[in-house]
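Notes to self after the call with IL:
- keep both proteins in one doc
- input above output, always
- annotate only the second one for now

Protein 1:
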Amino acid sequence: MSNATPAENPLLTAEGLPPFDRITPADVEPAVREILDATATAIDKIEADLSDPGLATWDNTIAVLETLGRNWERSWSPVTHLMGVANSDELREAHDSVLPDVVAMGLRIRQSRPVFIALKHLRDTSAWETFTEPQQRIIHERIRDAELAGIGLDGEQQERFNDIASQLSQLSTSFSNNVLDATKAWELVLTDPSDVDGLPDTLLQLASQSHNENCSTEIESSQASAGTPEQGPWRFTLDVPIAMPFLQHCRKRDLRETLYRAYVTRASDGETDNAPLIDEILALRRERASLLGYTSYAEVSLTSKMAMGVEAVEEMFETLREASWEAGNRDLDDLRELATKSGQQEPLAQWDAAFWSERLRESRFDFTDEDLRPYFSLDRVLDGLFSLCHRLFGITVEAADGQAPIWHEDVRYFIVHDEQQNERAGFYLDPYSRPETKRGGAWMNECLVRCRIDGQLQLPVAHLICNSTPPVGDRPSLMTFREVETLFHEFGHGLQHMMTTVEHADASGINGVEWDAVELPSQFMENWCYHRPTLLGIARHYETGEVLPEDLFEKLCRARTYRAGSLMLRQLNFGMLDMHLHHQFDPAGEDTVLEVQQRIAEQTSPLPPLPENRFLCGFQHIFAGGYAAGYYSYKWAEVLSADAFSAFEDAGLDDEHAVTETGRRFRDTVLASGGGRHPMDVFRDFRGREPGTAALLKHNGLA
């Protein structure tokens, strides 16, 4: 237990930025228990004040609930954030000790009948016309969320519903922890220089550093500490910044196979086996949907999304699949032909695809990812990204290192100013991979949301989390081009969070935005990585300062549509599998999830997956994230984002005035509106019409 008094507990601070440098696992339980007690008391008072629904107002319903939300933002959100970026056994134990009660309190709030009746009264009386559009959206969504939280259930049904919610929360956490532990536990240590022949210098440095920091139990520490990138040993892991370049460049086919098989079977056996959790999660989600009167969990999911229903999603899937299938098969034929010509006698296997894809890219476009990497140092990329945002949106981003408490020495803090030089927002950037304590992938999350509490405006603060290649020795972080795109992507999410003008927490930034529209700003920002002035402003050699040569830029642009059919089909595979598991699949039926995985692959994967492929056991997006029956959102929003970027193309990308004017319109519609306006209306505000798939297919070279 923490010895800190409530006033000293860093999770109970009411002002400023969260004191990440002082938060310990021992602080979690006492702080959360105090907030739970305070919340219970506050809900009792709210319900008493609403005993007569006719007395309901905005201030005694939504406004007081937003105040409660702010308490949780400052106490619980830092805990869940640290679970992702500074995981430890002690933090897990503290988090899990209070999680059931946190989930129960969330349901207690959403299942409050006095609040529910009061909100319906506000919706159904003349008071409705006095509310702004964001306020009306918030009330509508609170009512809908209460219904989806089981407020219409009674007795044993509601008790079972709440038990399911608690179980699902625990299972989600366990799933994520298992993936992290399985990733952390696997390693491939090589000592023979011939085994690493052909691997990029950057990867060798990273693998050597990984070995020296995480000494293998099979090698004496004295040897490990003496390891060098040139002589080894080298430690390869399943962490993406290491695993992907290894598969792309390792010339030893058996070693590629070893790592690939480990990657697609992560968290599928032993103590970290997620297979039983998948079955349990799907069964519980299906049961929850049934309790609510829906035939599938997908139907529940889509009630709060932009897509009109499962059929609309499946129609998009098929449109994109038909446009991609032949191209994907041609991509595979090209790889097989190159592998055969190059002397590979064995049939092309899954662990060959990335390797021969890189060889084909090199021969077709005469460059590699490693040729580009020296031109993309993190600091230079950040400068170019911030310069672009200044041109498009009129904002200025300034480093504020040392002005904010941080959870790791690599973390940086920045402040955003508007055109009048007023402080508008802030954000943390945690850029590098740390597989021992930080989950993989990249994400943006809220630290503080823009809202007005007791007349005071709280400015938004974002967490931008990446897993890019870290610095090695004296060499700065040199990014792959994909890592550059990922940074732009996450900053797009951050922009929607930070540039909102809505001052109600429930509709501020990404809050209240339909899930299948929330990727619009992030995917929109990726397009600028191929904009000549933007990219050439970023890409300078970290040693010489030389600008990326024009011919390399041209090759990069030509390579943009390289294997576009295959990449489209890969994403469709994930989305179609997710939707099938949450709509058609019956966990109590004869089929297994792995059999479903194989059947979907027949429609989307020209190169069939291994029979022993267990990638679902590591599919955190749908089993430990927010994308259950919603993975399609990436493609749905990509349709929106491609069409949005085409507005700049139509205006003229070489016309600085037109770009600036269009950028301000994007800022004042898509970025400003948050969840306060339906995304289709927001899109029409910006584009003047509804979106179509033509721009996406054109950008991918599939039309």
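Protein 2 (the one to annotate):
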Amino acid sequence: MDSSAIFRKKYGSFRRFFLMLGKARLPYLWIAAYLAASVVIANVGVSSTEYSAALFAGNVGLTAVVLPYLFYQLLSLVLGSVSGLLANLCEARMDRNLRRMVWCKTVRLPLRFYETNNPKELLSRITTDISSISGLVMRVFLAVLTTAYSSFVILRKISSYDGALMWSLVAILPVNILISFIMGRLKFGVQDLINRRNAQLTAAIAERTNNLMLIKSMGTEEKEAAVGEGHMRASYRAAGMNIWITGLSLPISAIATALQTVVIILVGRGFYASGALELTQWIAYYGFAVQLTNILSAYCGYWTTFKQVQGSVDRVTEIMDERSEDLDTGEVMGSPAGGIRFEKVDFSFGGTPLFQGLDLDIPAGRITAVVGPSGSGKTTLLNCISTIDTVSAGHILLNGQDISELPQQELARFRRERLGFVFQDFNLLDTLTLEENIGLALTINHMDPNLVRDRVQDVAMRLGIDDILEKFPTQVSGGQKQRAACARAMVAGQSLILADEPTGALDSRASKNLLEIMAKMNREMRATILMVTHDAYSASYASRVLFLKDGRLFNELLRGKRARAAVYHEILDVLGLLGGDIRDVM
């Protein structure tokens, strides 16, 4: 039940939080200016209160009381405006710097991070959670410092009237601390629940908004509307808990404050009756006591805010604690001249085994096709080579080296500079033109822009998309998108191409052009190409075919003449009659 979330015991580590702030390049000069303004405001407030008390006591001397009172009131107003401006500027700069830091960290995380974290939920981490953290710094941590100084100045002034009076006031004020502590714990749990429900809502709505065409074509409008409504109801229930807890805390705090006020008045009246205080000092004491009560109430609010934001802090610091890939160091691996070898590889989907002791060889400098029924592990094979998926046992050797033992930065640079991946679902950035999408791998390597354009246009012309390079992915057909995705994988001349159904959305002419380009890359650059396909014509360009079924290789399935005939029949069902086009079937 959602209500159990408000009694959470794990609150995260604020040591990690402060370490994160140290890396965030906070606007320290602006913060120093804000703190300086707050110090001046505290001292001005004491003087203003004393002159106000003199007026209430009947002292209306123009030069001695009235004019100084007006001066300090005006000065306090101006300084308050300046302080508010500085606080808003500091918070805005913190938002910018923290978001930049978390975003740069997010894009440099290893692929395994996204196996257990929904990328769409990271939206709220970089937006809502970051805003909560910058607000925590300005409205809690810095506010604690400024109000602590104000409290010191006020207590020092009261002590100048009578030391016993100051200590009696100190003894009275902490009545709200216990209430604030309890409400703060409740607030932390419910606010963390609200943030998590909002993150899930954002992820669900973002995913369905991006796939409205699919929803309409499948006629699942009512189902998807119900899914969205379910997430909205969950967010509403979390918000409702927050409303009830907040509503409960307000009358409790009001009663406690009223009782405090009565006691403060009676204590001051006793000191005044005994002659320890003059009338002006008694009035000033009451004004100072009200200010201290407000400061204490603010501290209660700080504690509540602190507990509310603690969940956001924990989620963001978890991202920052992840070890990122070092993209700027490490040697670049050469072409996979030694080929790729699987040795006793195990892989499971959510506990369901797929590969069990899989052994296979992918020769270097050749085109290898992977065929087999749907769900047999073809795409997973590509994902394991690219380390998108992590094997649970066994070894994948690249040039004789186990990729799981390679330094992260070396593996990351290999993926960027030697590996081309044609995904089954295109994966183009909608905010970039097709030309920018295709040349993306070249621009990050700081290649001359003119050379990038020439190379992009050359590959695009061969694939028949040179006339639409200035268009965005949302303006072209699925087949054109797929050709652009293929061009992006090939334009940098990578030595290893992993292609998942590269001709799936292409007509026969476009398929032939693409396959001929891949064959040319294989001949001229000795590129190693591993291609998943269900198409007989595409497989005919391969010099080797790997047939998978239920995570097992073709030669593992051959057990006697009857089994061999069944496997051959299944290959024919997958690819059709291949004739003599395939030179080596394994």
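Annotation: DSSP finds 20 helices and ten strands in the chain. Confidence is low (pLDDT under 50) at residues 3-9, 556-563, 577-586.
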